Amino acid sequence: MTADLLQLTNAVGQLLLGKEKQVRLALSCLLAGGHLLIEDRPGMGKSTLAESLATVFSLAFKRVSFTSDLLPADLTGINVFNQVDSSFHFQQGPLFSQMLLADEINRASPRTQSALLEAMAAGRVSIDGTSHALPRPFFVIATQNSLDQVGTSPLPEAQLDRFLMRVTLGFPDRDAERQLLRGDWSPAESLQGVDDQTLLQLQQRSSSQYCSEGVLDYVLDIVEASRRGQEGLSPRASQGVVAAARAWALIAGRDHLLIEDVQAVLPSVVEHRLDAGCPSNAGTPLSNDLLERVNALR
Q1: Tell me: the pLDDT tens digits for 179-195?
Q2: Domains (ranges, CATH) in the chain?
Q3: Regarding beta strands 124-127 and 77-82, do their DSSP bridges make them parallel or antiparallel, or are they unpaired?
Q4: Distance between CA 55 and CA 35 in Å, rounded?
């Protein structure tokens, strides 16, 4: 299993040059069963990362551009009247896929975003009073342009909290961009993957990683530090930190968590939950501020 994970990480890394840490974080998010928000400027490889993850896990993949005129029914589907038998039949929308790429999610209306929120939270959609279960596994990978881009608006805090992790890609280094310009990278079609059942098995292994009381105390210290004088991290966030750290440890080839695993995933799990209403006093990343306060107390 560990060898498979290393091969998958390397395969995606050959497509997204110079972004090994971001690839590993994204893979940790999927193994933890969470949804991923990828934030950056256009043209940085956000969609490429999402498509390559779907390819290596052989997941049914659909992409939806979240334009301002996108309606909830465009995502969920509608009941269509069949004149042959005089009855309504449900016609599934693109949400009924194993992986949905919600491209430029912060350009859509709040009403459309709320339709996606139910799917992310409950794994189902409700149409005319009837609930329809979504496939398993089900992941949402959303891309978000920077808020200084025209036509964007910030996501509501309730929706941000549904994303287990947020990853920012950033510019590639000079050597990686040189490889890109030379064409020394693998096309998505060349990726060798595993099936979706293997992914479910990896998720089960991830959730069973041993977490000692000492590591749990460390996570609790971080959560308590975030709640001093501000709203702080929710219990869902603390669960997310542990789940993501378990996945990070599994990719590293271990069956137990270390404090270093928590530190590795912490920024991606907590920054988008905190920076909306809790600015850092020092101007540094909020997760670093939390770690400094916790380490000072230990």
Answers
A1: 778 776 665 555 566 77
A2: 1-205 (3.40.50.300), 208-298 (1.10.8.80)
A3: unpaired
A4: 17
